Amino acid sequence: MLDKVRSRIPEYQPRVVETAGLPEAGVLVPVTCVEDRPEIILTLRSNNLSTHSGEVALPGGRRDPGDVDLAYTALREAHEEIGLLPDLVEVVGPLGSLVSRFGIKVTPFVGIVPDVFDLRPNEHEIQEVFRVPVSYFLEDNREMTHRIDYEGRSWYVPSYRFEGFRIWGLTALILVDFMNVAFDARIPLQVPPDGHRR
Predict the structure, then answer these.
(1) pLDDT tens digits, 117-173
(2) What residues contact 60, with CB distance under 8 A and at least 6 apart?
(3) Adjacent-strand bridge partners of 166
(4) Name one Pfam family in it (predicted).
(5) The domain containing residue 62 runs over which residues?
(6) For residue 128, is it within any domain?
(7) In terms of Cα–Cα distance, which of 2, 5, 160 is closest to 95?
(8) Can you give the CATH number for the domain in which 45 is found?
(9) Closest CA to 167 of 23, 44, 34, 82
């Protein structure tokens, strides 16, 4: 499976959102380096945060003025949030940019990471760190689908529930994009699936 990630992501031409003046953020899609059963590392954000509190998210955050690029931002934030050292990440490439509901341009970067590393969640930002097998998303085990109207069209974004964690919104959208690009999952985003619920 990792061979597909390493071959398809660098060849992908990601969609770039032209949003001059918007603040930017970089997030990491951390895929563990277990060939037959890779997992994605996700975080549950602290309830004390002013935005996205109590939500499942990918490691990442806003770009600082000193960040050389958004990949650097994603790696810096992953280190700050969960203790993942940048040197341990094999950055494979970017996915398409998105604009969050807070008006932030978000660029995800796929990175292959060790299965075991010194996990140190930042207690001020992160309530919990957990993993979801890639296979779970490939099977599209959605709990429901949310319709989001954006850029003049409707998007049908899955909402997943894995072991009590609700994975939805921008995080789910990024993960579906990753599944479609890396594994040709063909999870539909622009047509409502059977049994669609808002």
Answers:
(1) 888 999 888 999 999 999 999 999 899 998 887 767 788 999 999 999 999 999 999
(2) 25, 26, 27, 28, 73, 74, 77, 78, 81, 106, 108
(3) 161
(4) NUDIX
(5) 1-138
(6) yes
(7) 5
(8) 3.90.79.10
(9) 44
* Of 143, 148, 138, 144, residue with least CA distance to 190: 148
Which DSSP state fits 54? T
State the Cα–Cα distance between residues 58 and 174, nearest whole angstrom. Answer: 9
Residue 97 lies in a domain: yes
| Token pair listed for 184 | 């040709």
Q: State how many domains the chain has.
A: 1
Domain-embedded: residue 45: yes
State yes or no: pLDDT of 198 exceeds 60: no
Kindly state whether residue 117 falls inside one of the protein's structural domains.
Answer: yes
Helix/strand/coil percentages in the chain, nearest 5: 25, 35, 45
R_g over Cα of the chain: 16
**Strands 105-113, 24-32: parallel, antiparallel or unpaired by DSSP?**
parallel
Tokens of 119: 């996990």
